[in-house]
Amino acid sequence: MAKNQFGGNRPGGGSRPPFGGGGNRNNRRDSRYPSEDDKGQFRLNDQIRVPQIRLVGDNMEQISELVGTEIKSGEVYNTRDALQWAEKSELDLVEISPNAVPPVVRIIDYNKFLYEKKKKEKEIKAKAAKTVIKEIRFGPNTDDHDFEFKVRHAKTFLEENAKVKAYVNFRGRTIVFKDRGELLLLKFLKELEEFGSPESLPKLEGRRMIVMIAPKKKK
């Protein structure tokens, strides 16, 4: 498999066929065209039919050396010229902002571009995955036995990488014991300091005093 000037592998080796040329696409996929799964995401190469484009990217200096013409990122160029530069660099002209005037494009390896894009989307999706939150409720007069029982449960939840939402529920006149509730939650945090960290200090919300505890990252 041949390598292009940027160190990437191009399918099939050798140079690309000229614009409009056939090439044998029965044996390999020309990276100038998207696969069925990727079709419609981006226009590229001779699918870009506007007369002018705005070319951006951090590889302009390398491409300039290859094509023998100074190319500046952010400048407007004739599409035909940009296509020739992409062809000579054995890369792809990819339209990344079709609604801009003129459209914004980059000269890049399309396959690598899609790979990096999907990888980033996967990372974002993983971070956005729904966080499991376990609730633990106290009363302002919770006894020691009940307190220790709930501490053990909280440790288990945090070890399973769930967040713990602990709160003291004040019913009726017990709201006058909010100081007692705060001390109870602070004691709770102390018992869990090896397993999790509070996202903030206990705070009163209506008739509840709440603290959220996040699991500590495992080393």
Précis, in short:
The chain is of the alpha+beta class and 219 residues long.
What does this entry look like structurally?
The protein contains 5 helices and 9 strands, in the order E-H-E-H-E-E-H-E-H-E-H-E-E-E. With 219 residues, the chain is α+β, with helices and mostly antiparallel strands. The strands form 2 sheets. Strands 5, 6, 7, 8 and 9 form a 5-stranded mixed sheet that branches. Strands 2-1-4-3 form a 4-stranded mixed sheet.
Describe how the helices and strands are arranged.
Blueprint: E1 52-55, H1 60-67, E2 75-78, H2 79-88, E3 92-97, E4 104-108, H3 110-127, E5 133-138, H4 144-159, E6 163-169, H5 178-191, E7 196-198, E8 203-205, E9 208-215
Parallel strand pairs: 1-4, 5-6
Antiparallel strand pairs: 1-2, 3-4, 6-9, 7-9, 8-9
The amount of helix comes to 25-40%
Structural class: alpha+beta
Quaternary state reads: single chain
Distance between the first and last residues' Cα: 41 Å
Largest sheet: 5 strands, mixed
Percent of residues in beta strands? 15-25%
Number of strands: 9
H/E topology pattern: EHEHEEHEHEHEEE
User: What's the average pLDDT?
Assistant: 82
- Low-confidence parts: 5-34
Rg result: 30 Å
What is the helix tally?
5
Shape: rod-shaped
